[in-house]
Amino acid sequence: MKIPVYQPSLSGNEKKYVNECLDSTWISSKGKFVNKFESSLASYTGVKHATSVCNGTVALHLALVALGIGPGDEVIVPTLTYIASVNAIVYTGAVPIFVDSLPDTWQMDPEDVSRKITSHTKAVMAVHLYGHPCDMDRIMTVASEHGLFVIEDCAEAFGTLYKGKPVGSFGDIATYSFFGNKTITCGEGGMLVTNDETLFDRALHFKGQGLAKHREYWHDVIGYNYRMTNICAAIGLAQLEQADGFIRKKRQIAEWYKEGLQGLPVTVHGEVGDVRHSYWMVSILVEKPDQRDSLRDALATAGVETRPLFYPVHTMPMYASKFQRHPVAENLGWRGINLPSWPGLDELTVAKIVGIHKEYFR
């Protein structure tokens, strides 16, 4: 494709810091960049503790393990999400309980969360989808009333604010992903963050093969090798130094799309309420599901890569054994498209993409 849906912008200190790793020979999970990236990320996201991991999926699994989620437990999760949010629940032996979405924000519906709580419910996973935050006031109120943990999946919401506060700072524990198509990237990487020191200690313990604190090579739990390398942390730190600029540019790109697509029969995913949308992926809805694929085909023919919105997870074979209806999520999933959204896009390129939309709807 001439215009990819995403590509990283590696225009800062990435090469310099990676070369420092190579020159020092600290290339595995120890080295100065790991600690620097963790402390800088904690500060940026407004939390007390952060520990790096090798990707966003294991960050979710580690968060669930740290909370003690396991067989017999239920975790409420939106069906309109990336598959990793749900799979991580199943890895622990717990059961994902799907909830529908809100039609305006596309985020999990707090009223549906309330309806799905049972005696087996242990946690709510609030996934901040495509860069817009969930309604954290309502979710935290429901969780508090029922004594539930709240896990924030911020994989797609780095830099997102809810009422002036960074997402990831509301729940008991939160996770980030730094895959190559995320707002900041390590190539592969993730982070677990929390304000709870006990949860932080548990996460450290489990992510490092269950190594005991005060005895060398003594392991007292079954742990995991979820550590981030110094090289990945070096790239992550260099990206974090540029984060404010990336977010400003992505919000500018979203405005270009909104202005250009005005008057066409599409709806751009926008901000609802006192929030800052980070626009990980600028996304649109067409009016009818049967328009989605043909519009994507027209864009692909012109060299523009796009993605469909996530398919609701309850419709996928391994999660569809019991028939469920989540009408809002299904409607969004069948009509949505992610447009090119990387921070290196210029106004002329966005105008070209908009022009293809105008030609299609003419």
Automatic annotation (TrEMBL):
Keywords: Aminotransferase, Pyridoxal phosphate, Transferase. It comes from the Bacteria. GO terms for biological process: polysaccharide biosynthetic process. The active site is at residue 182. One of its GO terms (molecular function) is pyridoxal phosphate binding. Its cofactor is pyridoxal 5'-phosphate. InterPro entries: DegT/StrS_aminotransferase, PyrdxlP-dep_Trfase, PyrdxlP-dep_Trfase_major, PyrdxlP-dep_Trfase_small. Pathway: Bacterial outer membrane biogenesis; LPS O-antigen biosynthesis. Its EC number is 2.6.1.102. The modification N6-(pyridoxal phosphate)lysine is found at residue 182. It catalyses: GDP-alpha-D-perosamine + 2-oxoglutarate = GDP-4-dehydro-alpha-D-rhamnose + L-glutamate. The keyword Transferase applies. Belongs to the DegT/DnrJ/EryC1 family. This is GDP-perosamine synthase. It comes from Geobacter sp. (strain M21).
